[in-house]
Amino acid sequence: MYHYFEPAALTNPAELVTEVPARLNERIHEGSLDLSAMSSFAYGMASDRLLLLPDISVSSRGEVKSILLFSKEPIESIVNRTIALTNTSATSVNLLKVIMTKFYEGNPDYITMEPELESMMENADAALLIGDHAIKASWADHDYYVYDLGELWYRYTGHQMTYAVWAVNRSYADNNGDAVKEIADAFYSSKTASLRDLAPVVKHAVQHIGGSEAYWYAYFRNLVYDFGENELQGLQLYFRYAHELGLMEHEVQVDLWNENKLIRVTE
To answer: I want to staple 166 with a disulfide (CB 3.0 to 4.6 A). Which of 53, 175, 227, 243 is the partner?
Structure first.
């Protein structure tokens, strides 16, 4: 989304802020960011104050390859055991809780730890890792069972799963429709350009994370970067399950921004 995104080229002045995901979530919640990428769960927590941008997300139809549960035993055997959670992603943590309770009828004990696989496994029967930590752990030589949460979600629901979205504060969108449109179009153009030629993105990943070019081409081609009807249905189901389990305090009404007009989505 960002590789070809150039704020300096926008006619409406904009500043690109780089922070860890948790801090971006906090800043758009508190109003110090007008528009941001954010985790799906964080969007749900503040959906009454935010609008989703259409056509862009980080989603998967099946495997996501970077949200992984490592387990000492088959998953059916640890549904009431102890699972160590990463401390870096509310969306993934709550997706795991939905999967364990809704699909496996389990009630594990959860502990939160730094994302280091072996230390997590010293204290638990299974461990959830996301992002670079999950990818690097998947490359390591170990005997753990490995479960991809995107694949489990798709297996039991038949829906895609959306992990990250782009959202804009309603008050900002109401008064700055032209700026929101220009930024949304720039993100969409960057996405399109990157998918047309993944080589620069793959090269960056190899240099900064490791692995082979073949791995990263497969990884990036596997993800879904759209946000349309399929992604919306999966996200709404995720929010409904999260609310039913008490993970989300309120029911989430998903509202989309489009050309400075509110599109209210009903199930």
So the answer is: 53
